[in-house]
Amino acid sequence: MTAYRALFVSRFLQVLQYRAAALAGFGTQCWWGGIKVMVLAAFFGQASHAAPSMTLAQAITYTWVAQGLLALLPWSGDPEVALAVRTGAVAYDRLRPVDAYTLWFARSAGWIAARVLPRVALMAAFAAVLLPLAGFAAWAWELPATPAAALAFVLSALLALVLSTALVMLLNIAAAAALDARGINAFAVPLVILLSGNLVPLALLPDGWQQALLLQPLAGLLDIPMRLYIAQATGAQAVALLGLQLFWAVVLVVLGRLLMARTLRRLEIQGG
Fold first, then answer.
1. Does 42 have pLDDT greater than 70?
2. Which helix (H) or strand (E) holds 177?
3. pTM exceeds 0.70
4. Which CA distances in Å does 272 have to 64, 80, 87, 89?
5. In this structure, which long-range contacts are made by residues 133-139, counting pairs with CB atoms below 8 Å and at least 24 apart in sequence?
6. Can you state the percent helix, strand and coil of the chain, rounding each to 5?
7. Mapping DSSP to helix (H, G, I), strand (E, B) and coil, where does residue 272 land?
8. Which are the contacts of 214, defined by CB distance < 8 A and separation ≥ 6?
9. What is the b/e burial string over 158-173, where b = at least 16 CB atoms within 10 angstroms of the residue's CB?
């Protein structure tokens, strides 16, 4: 475990150095967050009866937190793995005296975490602190409803990191199998945007879709953590949602291990 922890920390610190990227991402996410908030305000103003399970204030908080956690979503595979596949450096990972899947998993988790933390901190400072001070409390990021909701959200966010990394690993493996990451990444983006709840909270989608939307694995990336944050799910229901996230994380890790073993047995080394 020491080796894998060192891999996570080294990748985390490496990516954390790119402060300009974090600031640029924060600026972009503020812009789109503002647009989404205005769209939601218009929607609730004209059709508030269509979403009785979520208030406008909850939807606004959902939007700001979702923008802060945007980098948590598995938009693409780890670019370091994609580069290694293109250049042939992936052969070195096959020779290291560690488990190849866990090696890639630890590095990818560090890459995701290092991009998320600065942006979510900046978004919280802007939407939860500066907006109320500027007199825009109605458009601000509200604190969790209860301490129990805050704790459930933290646990859920950690599980979301594991789940996101497991999904990134599937993209990494697909890139290794296809010898190129562009096609699978382009396919993943629209699915992640819609099914994670990033485009719109899943609770605002048609009632007939709700059970299927909640049970599919991408809901655990954003929608489930936010249901816990705004206390839409409490008690036994909250525990069940955390269990659902853990279930999908385990399933995807097992699936990833099987696929990676199969892929590495047939891997063609590129480059020279």
1. yes
2. helix 147-178
3. yes
4. 46, 17, 7, 9
5. 138/57, 139/37, 139/60
6. 80, 0, 20
7. coil
8. 202, 223, 224, 244
9. ebbbbbbbbbbbbbbb
> Any idea which residue has 């305000």 for tokens?
41
CB under 8 Å to 28, separation ≥6 — which residues? Answer: none
The encoded tokens of residue 143 equal 């604190």
Q: What is the pLDDT of residues 201-252, one digit of tens each?
A: 998 888 889 899 999 999 999 999 999 999 888 889 999 999 999 999 999 9
Is the Cβ–Cβ distance between 132 and 57 less than 8 Å? no
Distance CA 267, CA 93 (A): 12
- Between helix 79-87 and helix 147-178 the angle, nearest 10°, is 10
| Angstrom distance (rounded) from CA 267 to CA 263 | 6
Residue whose entry in the numeric block shows the structure tokens 């989608």:
205
pLDDT tens track for 176-193: 877 776 778 788 888 999
Residues in the chain, overall count = 272
What pLDDT, in 10s, does the model give residues 98-157?
888 999 999 999 999 999 999 999 999 999 999 999 989 889 999 998 999 999 999 999
